[in-house]
Amino acid sequence: MQDTHVPALARLDSALLAALQSAAADAQASGVNMHVTSGWRSAAYQQRLFDEAVVKYGSMNEASKWVHSPSLSKHVSGQAVDIGPTDADDWLIQHGNDYGLCQTYANEMWHFELATTPGGECPPQLSNPSDERAEG
């Protein structure tokens, strides 16, 4: 997470990036390697992901359970990251709120957002990204 010249990291919200860097350092001290597998995304790339999901799942409604359109995606605004590998996801699920990082969707253990203050309580998870659209 030190390659901050890469757009996927450089265009993240600065508070999110700082929280991730702190969490990654502490995870590393615990023997867990943490990587951003997807950070900031361009609107065009997000649209491509959404279009591919529509083909894969057969409808926009089903696709939206896994991928947001560019207008709704927090990746496009630099406010969300996907983390890997799985042991890093597990570590962040257990310790993320210490940094303000929360798993926001129950069906995406890899997706995290800065959703609370450090040490605060994470909001209840939504079952999937389409729930957010219904609420907001």
UniProtKB/TrEMBL annotation:
UniProt keywords, alphabetically: Hydrolase
Enzyme Commission code(s) on record: 3.4.-.-
Alphabetical list of CDD domains matching this protein: Peptidase_M15_like (cd14846)
All copies of domain D-alanyl-D-alanine carboxypeptidase-like core, residue ranges: 11-112
Record-level GO BP terms: proteolysis
Pfam families: VanY (PF02557)
Name under which the protein is recorded: Putative M15 family peptidase
Organism: Rhodococcus erythropolis (strain PR4 / NBRC 100887)
